[in-house]
Specification:
Distance between the termini: 28 Å
Strand content: 15-25%
Order of helices and strands: EHHHEHEEEHE
Number of strands: 6
Pfam families: PTH2
GO molecular function: peptidyl-tRNA hydrolase activity
Enzyme class: hydrolase
Protein name: peptidyl-tRNA hydrolase
Helix content: 40-55%
Low-confidence stretches: 1-7
Number of helices: 5
Structural class: alpha+beta
InterPro entries: Pep_tRNA_hydro_II_dom_sf (IPR023476), PTH2 (IPR002833), PTRHD1 (IPR042237)
Shape: globular
Largest sheet: 6 strands, mixed
Radius of gyration: 15 Å
C-alpha cells in the first residue's frame, strides 16, 4: 500500500481466534459465537487503545483488516494464549460469563509479519 510520501506502509491486522467446537461440537448458535468474537475484538482495542499501532489501525476506519481463525477446542485456545503471553503479544482471552468458559481471543492490531508466524497452524474460521 502506497503512502503519500511514495513509500509503502505496513499492513496492520487484528487477528481473532475463535473456538470452532462451540458450533460443531457444542451446538452454540452462530450468532452467539460471532458475538464472542466481537466482544474479544472490542476488548482488545479498548485495552490497548493508546498503543500506536492501535491508533494507526483506527485512523484507517474504512480499511481496517481483521482475520478470523479457528482453534479446534478450549485446550488449543488456552495454549495459544499462553504462547502469546510468553512472547509478549498483547491480546484478550474472552471468557464467557457466568460460565467462565474461554471462547475466543483477539490480538491488538499488529503488523501482519510480526504475529502471523505464531498463528500459522490455525486455519481461517469456517
Amino acid at each position: 500500500m502506497a503512502t503519500p510520501s511514495g513509500g509503502t506502509s505496513r499492513r496492520l491486522v487484528q487477528y481473532v481466534i475463535v473456538r470452532s467446537d462451540l458450533i460443531h461440537t457444542l451446538s452454540w448458535p452462530l450468532g452467539a459465537v460471532i458475538t464472542q468474537a466481537c466482544h474479544a475484538a472490542t476488548a482488545a482495542i479498548h485495552l490497548h487503545y493508546s498503543d500506536p499501532d492501535t491508533q494507526e489501525y483506527l485512523a484507517e476506519l474504512d480499511s481496517m483488516h481483521k482475520v478470523v481463525l479457528q482453534a479446534p477446542d478450549e485446550a488449543s485456545l488456552s495454549t495459544l494464549s499462553s504462547t502469546l503471553r510468553e512472547k509478549d503479544i498483547a491480546h484478550k482471552l474472552w471468557m464467557e460469563q457466568p460460565e467462565n468458559i474461554p471462547t475466543c481471543l483477539a490480538l491488538k492490531p499488529y503488523p501482519k509479519e510480526t504475529v502471523q508466524p505464531l498463528l500459522k497452524k490455525f486455519k481461517l474460521f469456517k
